[in-house]
Amino acid sequence: MKYFELILSCERKNLETLEFHLGDFSNNGWDISDALTRKDILDPALLWATTILDEKLFLQEKERVRVKIYFNTEEEAKEAQRALLQTGLCMFLSLKELEDTDYANAWKKYYHPFSVGEFLIVPAWEKVPVTEKKVLRMDPGMAFGSGTHESTMLCLKALQEITPRGFVYDVGCGSGILGLAALLSGAQRVEALDIDPLAIEAVLGNAKLNGCANRISASLGDLLKGQEQQADLIFGNLIAEVVVELVPQTLNCLKVGGYFITSGILKEKEDMVKEVLYANAFEILKIFHEKEWVGILSQRRNHV
User: Fold this and answer.
1) How far is CA 30 from CA 5, 101, 198, in A?
2) Count of C-beta atoms within a 10 Å radius of residue 161
3) Same domain (yes/no): 264, 184
4) In terms of residue numbers, what domain contains 10?
């Protein structure tokens, strides 16, 4: 079976908005590669006889990322290319056909062990080094959540500020990395929720890799709608607009005194999220920044 890989260049400040649009075009997922550099731009693999590179790619190269999006047909890829370029959020790099094995594994060469505080994230296909850190073995597949994105790192940093106990919701779970990290840190059980079937598959696979398949459940869900169990901790690594929608829903699912960790928020939208947290009886305990991204650790204090 063949797949098609569309590669775009996007300024960091536009990434959140672009990802919001990506969900309309690809059911096979996408991959964000950090720091598009001059070396990346001149990579022979990206230089096609018919490809003309925009000179703007060489300006402020450290402020750009490379976005790879996957499609089942060339027609779908070209339709997405036209629509996404029309948004003005990105520029075209290449479109190429991949064999099934290439599509499933090409991204792995960029994914290596890395640390986030007390956590060491190790790809499933690599050997676990000797370490005193909490090891998370991950194979995100085509689900979001390798751990390398700044928003995921901010959530992991926020998690290390508390001692999770009891029950956890991981909303928009992707690969399940945050819920699994909570289990390693003391939580007893996790309910992982996502609208993407690939995410559910990835969560269950990663739970087995980390020896906690009996303590995590994964299901399709629209944020916290229909959930009734009271949690001690809720993750929401989404985008600012969706976080604003999620916060009022947490009041039915988060214990008084429970924690809410959220990210996927650009700096210019930080105040918008803070306002809705204050309006829904949350105290902001700590705010984290990484490049243009914001993470927030908050605690539910009282009933509204």
Assistant:
1) 9, 16, 12
2) 13
3) yes
4) 2-108
CA distance 127 to 240: 36
Beta strands 90-99 and 134-138 are unpaired
- Residues 178 and 146: their CA atoms lie apart, in Å, by 10
DSSP the chain: -EEEEEEEEEEGGGHHHHHHHHTTT-SS-EEEES---HHHHT-GGG--TT----GGGGSSGGGEEEEEEEESSHHHHHHHHHHHHHTTSEEEEEEEEEEHHHHHHGGGGG---EEETTEEEEETTSPPPS-SSEEEEE--TTSS--S-SHHHHHHHHHHTTS---SEEEEET-TTSHHHHHHHHTT--EEEEEES-HHHHHHHHHHHHHTT-GGGEEEEE-STTTT--S-EEEEEEES-HHHHHHHHHHHTTTEEEEEEEEEEEEEGGGHHHHHHHHHHTTEEEEEEEEETTEEEEEEEE-S--
Give the domain-ending residue among 44, 76, 108. 108
Contact 236, 226 (CB under 8 A): no
Q: Residues 91, 188: one domain? A: no
Query: What does the pLDDT look like over 126-183, one tens digit per residue?
Result: 888 888 999 999 886 655 555 568 889 999 999 999 999 999 999 999 889 999 999 9
Name the residue among 213, 164, 215, 208 with its Cα closest to residue 185. 164
pLDDT digits (tens, 9 = 90+) for 91-109: 988 898 876 655 556 556 6
Question: pTM to 2 decimals?
Answer: 0.70
CATH number at residue 268: 3.40.50.150
Count of structural domains within the chain: 2
